[in-house]
Amino acid sequence: MVKPVRAIAVVAMASMAVAACGGSDDSGGGGDGGKTLIISSDLPLQGASKDASVATNQAIKLYLEQQGNKAGDYTIKFQEYDNSTAAKGQWDDAQCTKNANEHVQNADEVAVMGTYNSGCAKIEVPVLNQDPKGPMLMVSHANTNPGLTKPWEPGEPDKFYPAGKRNYARVITTDDYQGAAAAQFASQDLKIKKCYVLNDNQTYGQGVAKAFADEAAKQNIQVVGNEAWDAKATDYKSLMGKIRSTGADCVYLGGIYEQNGGQVVKDKVAVLGPNSGGVKLFAPDGFTGYTDFQKLPEAEGTYLTFAGLTTEQLREGGGAGAKLLDAYKEKYGADPGTNYALYGVSAVQVILEAIEKSDGTRKSVRDAIFEGDGLTISATDSVLGKEIKIDPKAGDVNAIDISVVIMTSGVEKFHKAQPVQGA
Q1: Residue 206: closest CA among 91, 142, 117
Q2: What's phi and psi for 198, nearest 5 deg?
Q3: How do residues 58-75 score in pLDDT, each as one tens digit?
Q4: ω into residue 4 within 30 of 0, thus cis?
Q5: What is the DSSP letter of 397?
């Protein structure tokens, strides 16, 4: 069983260098007991996502320290992989491919926590799936594109599992729910009548924009435009002028902030006015947790959805999550700057439980989740404050939580929980 989180003093532990991918092993390890196994994170550590990724890794390392860096009789070492590049300033296809191959080659590594971006996961999962010593397990805290686990685009999800067995799970819900919930909130709470939908032309953005637009039509919101924005453009004022001519009372940005989202938001406000005014601005969790976005004056009043429970909700809920947040704040001086941090810990809880039930091999770690009845983390132990159960057939989590937050004075302020009608 996963041990309950203990709010204990953090003891400095010696770092142990691990060679692979330029990653670092910061959580310590060693000690006596069983074999030492490596679990890793695979996140963008450069660009606008850096702060969120660093906070997630810090929360994971703190949790592992609290567990004595153990899972059953196994000693756990933690290694960080970076799937971004300085040149691109975000996740990179080639780097994701490189990381996937290095996960497989890293002899003592048994599972991956990640990725953050769904597009990167779609590159890495098939490589891990064909691992001759596996398949190798990946558990994501942040991938929300539905196609990784269920039919979405042609060939999905089967094309990600060429070995014929699932090896990918997640502790976060999916964009078919997130997009639908956003449209339901827009219609029922804000009485939106016309909306212009934009996407960043990436896997995640296209998916969540499609889910929003499909549900908007069911909610009697007229979708007066639906197109991609050019992330390389320097100015979007003409695009916003076109949107103004449609009479739209909302703009939905399906995408991630790194895709020049800041300039899109600036030009939306310049042409269409403040987000608290007549033309509301909506965005999904691809815009949450970014310090640069939070600092933008033009971000004020933006409605954001998060496909889970916010840090604010988890702190108020008490239990294991609140205790870990207390310890995190004591060590780092503030709560994590991203709602995904505790979801990263939740994914690690799933991995540790799988390791405890295994014989220490990649195959058996994967089998602990995908064979039999699946894997469950109790509500008492879970840092998410509720029972977490992974479906062994698909890899999806049982919890379908969507939160609405609003940008208020540079802070993502929790607004309401948004149940997904029809879920």
Answers
A1: 117
A2: -120, 150
A3: 999 999 999 999 999 999
A4: no
A5: B
Any residues with CB less than 8 A from the CB of 81 and at least 6 apart, and which?
A: 20, 21, 23, 40, 41, 42, 43, 99, 102, 103, 112, 114
3-class DSSP assignment, residue 416 = strand
What one-character-per-residue DSSP string does 108-151 give?
TEEEEEE-SSHHHHHHHHHHHHT-TT-PPEEEESS---GGGTS-
Distance, in Å, from the CA atom of 423 to the CA atom of 418, rounded to the nearest integer, reads 12
133: its two tokens:
């010593």
Strand partners of residue 401: none
What confidence tens digit (pLDDT) does each residue in 285-315 have?
A: 999 999 999 999 999 999 999 999 999 999 9
List, in order, residues 6 or more apart from 340 with CB less than 8 Å away. 52, 56, 116, 141, 142, 289, 308
Kindly state the tokens that stand for 124: 């890495």
Residue type, position 5, single letter: V
- Does the structure show a pLDDT above 60 at 14? no
- Contact in structure between 317 and 419 (CB atoms under 8 Å): no
Of residues 146, 90, 155, 150, the one with CA closest to residue 120: 90
Nearest to 214 by CA among 226, 202, 203, 205: 226
- Written as six digits, the tokens of 290 are 């970014």
Q: What is the DSSP string of 175-208?
A: HHHHHHHHHHHHHHTT---EEEEEE-SSHHHHHH
Q: What is the token pair recorded at 176?
A: 């078919």
Q: Is 292 exposed, middle or buried (0-12, 13-18, 19+ CB in 10 A)?
A: middle
Taking 60 as the threshold, does the pLDDT of residue 276 lie above it?
yes
The Cα angle at residue 309 between residues 420 and 387, in degrees rounded to 5: 90
pTM of the model: 0.89
Give the residues across from 39 on adjacent strands.
Answer: 78, 111
